[in-house]
Amino acid sequence: MAREDEYDYLFKVVLIGDSGVGKSNLLSRFTRNEFNLESKSTIGVEFATRSIQVDKKTIKAQIWDTAGQERYRAITSAYYRGAVGALLVYDISKHGTYENVERWLKELRDHADTNIIISLVGNKSDLRHLRSVPSEEAKAFAEKNGISFIETSALDSTNVEQAFHTILTEIYHIVSQRQIPDPNGSQGNSGSHSAPVPLRLPPSDTDFKSKQNGSCCS
């Protein structure tokens, strides 16, 4: 297994959605395999990291979780800066959180890079007896807006790995297809092969970062 400080790509992924939909527990389940029933509402911004393997490359995901309350909206611009993926989360047992998805999607598209990969996530699928958002309705919304859709449960882990792996793999495939050889022929950090250079995407501060950059998402 790769050490935490060794990776080929660093991708910033943001979690957005109403307060109480389970964003923090999705983050902790994926990064630490933990779930906290007493989870409090996030204040400001938190993030955690985890590395996965895709096509023999080490992808380090830096996953940001933010407060869903309106009073924290001032952090919006900094939160989205540099993000290449977003999980838009709602609670399948609370239709109001689903009704707000359209507003969250608009905010995301207003502030994030136009190339960002988005997945709609219906969380708390373990509460199927309390379901108020039909899967087909959410799936149709996702298709209409050109984003993917999945239902998860941070409580029992259902589809949590798949949700993150799917979006990270999609980001990786887009990045790898846009790469060009280093025109200087410089060696990668390992010194064993020429390092590919990701093509920058506008705006300039919102690019897919590889370890050659030596920098972290802001």
UniProtKB/TrEMBL annotation:
First-listed, main subcellular location of the protein, grouped into a coarse class: membrane
Organism expressing this protein natively: Adineta ricciae
NCBIfam families in UniProt: small_GTP
Family assignment from sequence similarity: Belongs to the small GTPase superfamily. Rab family.
One Pfam assignment: Ras
Bias type Polar residues, positions: 179-193
Recorded GO MF terms: GTP binding; GTPase activity
Bilayer topology term: Lipid-anchor
Lineage, top ranks: Eukaryota, Metazoa, Spiralia, Gnathifera, Rotifera
Compartments, as annotated in UniProt: Recycling endosome membrane
Record-given protein name: Uncharacterized protein
Keywords in alphabetical order: GTP-binding, Lipoprotein, Membrane, Nucleotide-binding, Prenylation
GTP-binding as UniProt keyword: yes
Residues covered by region (Disordered): 179-218
GO cellular component: recycling endosome membrane
SUPFAM superfamilies referenced in this protein's UniProt entry, alphabetically: P-loop containing nucleoside triphosphate hydrolases
